[in-house]
Sequence to fold (424 residues):
Amino acid sequence: MESKTAEISKAAFLRFPAYLRYLQAEAAAGVSYVSSSEIAEDMHLSAVCVRKDLALVASEPGKPRLGFAVGKLIGDLERTLGYHLKTHACVVGAGRLGRAFLVYDGFEHYGIDVVAAFDISPAQVGALHGKPIYPMERLKEIAEREEVRLGILTVPGEAAQKACDAMVEAGITSILSFAPAYVRVPAGVTLRCEDLAATLASLLAEAGKGGI
Amino acid sequence: MESKTAEISKAAFLRFPAYLRYLQAEAAAGVSYVSSSEIAEDMHLSAVCVRKDLALVASEPGKPRLGFAVGKLIGDLERTLGYHLKTHACVVGAGRLGRAFLVYDGFEHYGIDVVAAFDISPAQVGALHGKPIYPMERLKEIAEREEVRLGILTVPGEAAQKACDAMVEAGITSILSFAPAYVRVPAGVTLRCEDLAATLASLLAEAGKGGI
DNA sequence: CTCTAATCGATATTTTTTTATCGATTTACA
DNA sequence: TGTAAATCGATAAAAAAATATCGATTAGAG
Fold:
């Protein structure tokens, strides 16, 4: 018997965080029920698409003429997205971007706890807002001790592959890379590359011709 | 007659930056020709998909038994992605993340020039690495003077909508938001939300069940 | 209490995207 | 120089995702 989450399409899964954000805003505005057509209009989607997506996560069906209970949906989405699962993360590369992630306090609500950063430069070693910054040599030791499964890679492009290899060696199985470089990971490790400059450029292209 | 770029599918366009990164790495390694099957294997895609994608951008066809000329492809991709077009950008919200973007020197190769940052707090106003940080009141003035079309939104969630409105008012037509909030923009403005925490969480979900 | 209007959810259709198949081409090597 | 192996590109098929259609349901107005 397949679990319910397995049936969720990739595309829909990618939209869930946006629904969640929207619903949180509605909840903050005191709205208790919201219809799929309202969501669709506000989020620039089709109402059918919204209904299909919500049907994948909603623990109780929408009520005709009313819509969906906002609070309930928020809980359903958070559970589906795994925000209740606690995970330890680390930052590799304590430059400006890395340090921004190290002290960012917005991860907690998503079950992610950034426990440390690592850097190859002794000048960066120390701590920031109570979060330790270690030399790269200690990555494996600390990551294993703290059971770190998630790594945020924020090193310069030329250092990316080496740092990534070290993360894999340290037992990290999910890597989010902001390094401007192509990096290779072995099977079993999930890598996502966030190419900030490329994202900006594609955004411009999208604006230029109205919808990628 | 439709322009050639109009035929490029959304999904393919999103893969282009990854190809570019890969090819740059190959070029740096001294490789001059690369076949679609090699690319596919390294990037965990199907060879057919790679060939179809490359056919969309390649200015000269691939050669049987050799593959594609790496240098040529790099140029083709950069042109398709619009990296030759110069655009002025600004950062709104000069916190840690915003300041990281302000001084990041990796945008240049993508035709993006971050000319200034803005912040509501007078404590942040000044300059960083020669890049000015202005008070929010001057956003419209500066953005219009510098012809800023692209904005990077890095304010706290509760300030996001107001800051976004100010950006739209200032004539900015493409916004990349890192603010953890739902923000609404009028038609004609392209908004993309990068939800870092959500990205991390989805990465974990992906790793957890092997492929989103 | 009844009727209306709006919404839901299921099924069907269309569109988009990915993958498969296959002949044509051509480089490298014997 | 001829042959073989590997690649390309085009066409076709399959899969995935978005969109349309429609009867069932129900809150709320009259």
Observations:
- DSSP finds eight helices and nine strands in chain A.
